Amino acid sequence: MIKRLFDIKFSIIGLLLSFPLLLIISFLIKKESPGPAFYRGERVGKAGKVFRIFKFRSMVLNADKIGGPSTSADDPRLLKIGKFIKSHNLDELPQLINILKGEMSFVGPRPEVPSEVATYDEETKGIILSVKPGMTDLATLSNVHEGEILKGAKDPHEAYRRLIQPQKLKLAKEYVRTRSFWLDIKIILKTIKSAII
Hints:
Blueprint: H1 2-32, E1 38-39, E2 42-44, E3 50-52, E4 55-56, H2 63-66, H3 80-87, H4 95-101, E5 105-107, H5 114-117, H6 122-128, E6 134-136, H7 138-142, H8 146-150, H9 156-178, H10 181-196
Parallel strand pairs: 5-6
Antiparallel strand pairs: 1-4, 2-3
């Protein structure tokens, strides 16, 4: 209950404070590339419920039909503004809407696409999908710049599964097993610090 009240209060505050920035980013995306400013991809939430995530569109239109779900820093599908907002994690800001709707929380395992969740073993699914996904978690802090790790890979998604996913799942399960309100606060503060630095 405390976590949900925290999510509601601070997602509203976050949306109000970031509203001018949201408008500017939306304008710059639409100026560079025709189409919507938001990307509404499918993600798997608590108990396996599929929802549509809010993210700023950082790529060309229909990028999901051109390449895979993982994005390297040198992905040719990235817009100029897309490279900037991804490098500063600004593409994640619209997820405040998902938090307000109750589909996500500020802290929790990062939500994955259905095809990726389908590769998890049953134990992993049971643990990770027992809580709401979040904007940030232990794995986010560990791999702040995933795109840089995948840079130069011939197959970014294969590299993601090999270099990032094992640790990501391990940290996601660790979070679920040890989660507390105070751990959430620590993760949020460290995320803000990493974004500033």
